[in-house]
Amino acid sequence: MNTEEMLVRLHRIGLALSSERNLDSLLQLILTEARRFTTAEAGTLYLREGDRLRFTVAQNERQDPPGSCSASAGAGLQNITIPIDETSIAGYVGASGRLLNFEDVYAIPADRPYHFNRDFDARNGYRTRSMLVVPMQDIAGRVLGVVQLINARDESGTVVPFAPALEPLVHSLASQAAVSVRNAQLTRDLQDAQYDTIFRLSVAAEYRDADTAQHIHRMSRYSEAIARAMGLPDEEVELILHASPMHDVGKLGVPDAILQKPGKLTPDEFLAMQRHTIIGGKILAEARSAVLQVSESIALTHHEKWDGTGYPRRLAGEAIPRPGRITAVADVYDALTSKRCYKPPFSRDEAVEIIRKGAGSQFDPEVVATFERILDTIAVIQKQYADPEPPRAGSPVAAPNTG
Amino acid sequence: MNTEEMLVRLHRIGLALSSERNLDSLLQLILTEARRFTTAEAGTLYLREGDRLRFTVAQNERQDPPGSCSASAGAGLQNITIPIDETSIAGYVGASGRLLNFEDVYAIPADRPYHFNRDFDARNGYRTRSMLVVPMQDIAGRVLGVVQLINARDESGTVVPFAPALEPLVHSLASQAAVSVRNAQLTRDLQDAQYDTIFRLSVAAEYRDADTAQHIHRMSRYSEAIARAMGLPDEEVELILHASPMHDVGKLGVPDAILQKPGKLTPDEFLAMQRHTIIGGKILAEARSAVLQVSESIALTHHEKWDGTGYPRRLAGEAIPRPGRITAVADVYDALTSKRCYKPPFSRDEAVEIIRKGAGSQFDPEVVATFERILDTIAVIQKQYADPEPPRAGSPVAAPNTG
Q: Which of A182, B93, B211, B366 could tie B215 with a disulfide, CB 3.0–4.6 Å?
C-alpha cells in the first residue's frame, strides 16, 4: 500500500470514527481500525481521567480469534489506572504527547525512565515484542488517551517492527480518534444532563406525596430490569429506565387536599386523583425528545389494566403501550412492598403473590411472567435503593407538609 | 500541490470539522475550507429539510473582501428553499447524490433537466462561470445538504474550471462535512431536549401557583434580554435564558394552604413561603450540568436584595450572583405588570417607575439601568408572550384548584 492509498484509507477511517457516537462502540472501533491499519496483533486503549490513564479496551487476535467475543477489558482490568508520568510507557506518551516505537520492548535500555512490565506476558503465555504507542490528542493538543499497538506482523504472520513511515499516519488516526472520543463524551454528558434533569424534577414532583426519591429509583430500575429480561432492544430499555421517573408528574395538578387526604377519597375526589394521568400526559405532550415521548406514554397509561378496567382511557391488552404495562407492575410492586402511613409494607412473597394473581386481569401476563423470572434481580434493586430509617429521612428536600 | 499533500490537507480539514460542534460556526467553516481547498471565489451551502434544500450559508470573496463581515445568508435568503428534484442544479445533486462540474454554467446544454438561474448574477453584477456542486452524504449515503462552489481561480486570479482531479477529494470533504453536520445537529437536539424538559417541568411546577406558562416565557426572555444588553458572553446569556424558568421550582415544597391562601400570610406562613428558595436550591444541588447549576443559583438568590434585606441569606451587592440579580428584576417586573386575583396589572410606566425606585435598595443599579435602556425590547417580549384572554385559559394543563 503506497502513501496515497494509506491516506485515502485514513480518511475513510476518520469518517467512520466521527460517525460513531456511542462511546463504547467508538473505543472498540478505534482500536480495531488502528490495529488493522498497522497490522498489529494486539492493542490496548487508555482513556485519560484527570491525571491518570484508565485501561479501557484490550484486543488480542491471538487470544480472541475472530468470531470470539474479544473486546472490552474484563471487569478486573477496567479498574487499572496508571499515572500520567514517565514511569510507564503509556504514562510517558500521555505526559509527553510524543509517540514511542519499539522494535522489542524486552530490549528497552535500562536508562529510560519507563520500563516494560512483563507480568501480563508471563501470566498469559504471550510474548510482546514490537510496540507502537501513540497519544490521542485533540486539535488543541490535549491528550485524551493513549493507544498501544502490539506486535506488527508481515504478510507471513511473523512479528516485525512497526514501520517508521506509519508513525505520522497513526498519529493522525489517533487525533481523529481523540476528536471523536471528545464528541462521544460530550454527547453522553448532554444525555446524562437531560436524564438528571428528569430525575431531579420527578423526585421534586413526588415531594407532596408519600413517595420518595428511593421509590423513583426502585420503580425505574424494576422497569428497566423487566424490559431487559423481556428482550427489548437496549435503546428501548434505556428509554424506559429514564422515562419512568416521570410517571406521576401529573400529581402536580392534584390539590394537596386530595393528594394528602388521610382517609378514604370520595368518588369525586378519586376522579380528581385519577386525572394525574391525563395531566401528566399534557405536561409531556408533543415533545420532540424520545425520552419525553416515552414519559408521556407512561404517565398516561401506567394505571390502565390488561382487562380494560383501568384509567383514564380503559385501554385493554396490547392497546396499552408496552412501557405502561411494564411500569404498572413495577409501580404496584413497589407500592405494596413500601411502608405507607396507612399500611405496613407487605412481605416480598405476599407482594409477588398479589402481582401473580393480577396477571391477565390487572397486568399483562407476559410482563408478570418476566417479573417472576427475575425476582432475584428485583430483590437486589429493592435492597440497593431501600428507604432509609426512619422512613421519611430519605426525602431529598425535607418532610412534606402532610398536615 | 500533489495528491499526497492534498490528502494530508483533507485530513486536517476533517479534524477541524469534526472538532466544531456549534452548527452555525461549522457551516461557515465547511464552506470556507471547501472554497480554500478548491480555490473557489464564492460558494453556497444548502441544508436538507425534509424534501427540500434550505439556502443556509453564502460566501463571496469578491463581494465580501477579507475583513468585511462575510458569512451568513441574509435574513431574506435564509427563507429560500428549493425542492430536491431535477429542476435546479443543487436540487439535482441532492436528489441524485452525484457531483456536477461545469466549466461555464451559462453554457449548460438546454436538454438538461436543470438550468442555471441568472437572476442573482443580474442583481449583483456578478458573473458565475465555473461551478462544482457536491452532495454532503453521510456514510450511510444519506444526503444532508449540498455545497455549491463557484468560480475557481488560478494563481493569477483568473476564473478557471474546477480540475476533475479535485472531484473525489471534494466529495470526501463533503462527506466529512455531512458527518460533522449530523453530529452538530444531534448535539443541538440533545441540548434542546434538556431545555424542553426544564421548561415543561417548570411550567408544571408553577401549576399550583397563580403563574402561567406565559409568565415563565416572559420572565426568562426578559432575563435573557437584560443579560445580553449587559454585554455578558453569549454562552452565559443562553444559560440564564434556559436556567431561569426553574426559579420557583422550590414552590413544590410549599403546601397549597400557604401557596394558595387568599388573604395575608401570617409571619410563620411567610417564612414557610420563603423556604421555596432553599427548597429549589436543594432540588437542583450538585448538578453536573451547567444549566442546572445556574438554575440552582437563581432559585436560591432571586429574592435577595441589593441592600442585604432579602431572603433567604440576606446577601448584599455583588455577593448576590449576577443571574439572581438579573432575574430578580425580570420576575418583579412581570409580577407587577400581570393581573393577579388580588390585584389588577400595573401599567408599564408604573411598573418601570417601581423598578427604578428599587435601584440600589432592592435591585442592582446596573441591572436596572440596563433594563431601562431596553424597554422597547421588553415591550416586544411582553406582547409576544401576553396572557391570553380570559386570563387563565393559557395554562398548559387546566385551571388549578385555587379554592
A: B211
